[in-house]
Write the structure tokens for this entry.
Amino acid sequence: MRTTVRLDPELLAAANVHAAKTGRTLAALLEDALRAFLTRERRRRAKVVRSLPTWGKGGVLPGIDLDNGADLLAVVERTDGARRRARARPGRRRG
């Protein structure tokens, strides 16, 4: 496909020299450069770490290891059990 692109004259000259040195056409050099740039951008975006919302002071409670699934499950079960017991207490009003 043909298209027109405006390039800085010095950049175009350097690209022509590089294309000649590597035995490629200017079009092939530009295609390769664009593909490499777009691939790098996709990988960079894929590695973006997004922060999750937190409430309160943030951070992990002391003694919690987020890499240990069994310990996390035990903490969740203890917390859920305490909540259920608190709800089951007679005479306790929630406000």
